[in-house]
Amino acid sequence: MSNLSFDITTARGFFNKLTQDISDFRNDPTSSRLAINCAMTSWHLGEWIFNDLEDLLNADFANVKAYLIDLRTVQCPSLEIMRVITNGSKHCKISSPSSKIVNTAKHDGLFSSAFSRQFDVTYLYIELEDGTTIHFEDILSEVFAFWNDYVAVRLSWSL
């Protein structure tokens, strides 16, 4: 339980923060500020869950670091992208990146994001070292689906 996050004191409260962050982002899907908030909250939710359930999770993981490695490499590889965005935003740049992400940016299209992707719409994207790009919104949807399933099935939280 955290006593340094105002009235967000449990993993469930932090999950609710993620839900609200994503709702805000979906209302403004070209906002870098909101995207960074979503990345940070979705990545750090793992730490909150580990702290709340440390006794239960210690049977499978020696510590929070081992748990987070499992989350981002086995259970939900898209969390690795959220980790890199979180750390890159927090530290301005990463001196020894361990991911295949080389850049994040905003594509300024001719049409607003309210249009179909069949048009040249504005969107946030992630560029990988092989030159491919991924819409941030797609990765966020994958991560949120993972967390929704995780808390509903693994933690038996009613949503």
Q: Nutshell version of this structure?
A:
The chain has 159 residues and is mainly alpha-helical. The protein contains six helices and three strands. Strand 2 (123-128) and strand 3 form a beta hairpin.
Outline the structure in words.
- With 159 residues, this protein is mainly alpha-helical.
- The chain contains six helices and three strands; from the N terminus they run H-H-H-H-H-E-E-E-H.
- It has helices spanning 11-27, 32-52, 54-57, 64-75, 78-91, 136-154, and strands at 101-107, 123-128, 133-135.
- A three-stranded antiparallel sheet has the order 1-2-3.
- A hairpin with a 4-residue loop joins strand 2 and strand 3.
- It starts with 10 loop residues before the first helix and ends in a 5-residue tail after the last helix.
- The mean pLDDT is 91.
The coarse silhouette is globular
- What is the beta-strand fraction? 5-15%
Poorly predicted regions are none
Q: What is the string of helix and strand elements?
A: HHHHHEEEH
Give the neighbour order of strands across the main sheet. 1-2-3
Sequence-ordered SSE layout with sheet pairings:
Elements: H1 11-27, H2 32-52, H3 54-57, H4 64-75, H5 78-91, E1 101-107, E2 123-128, E3 133-135, H6 136-154
Antiparallel strand pairs: 1-2, 2-3
Helix pairs in contact: 1-2, 1-6, 2-4, 2-5, 2-6, 5-6
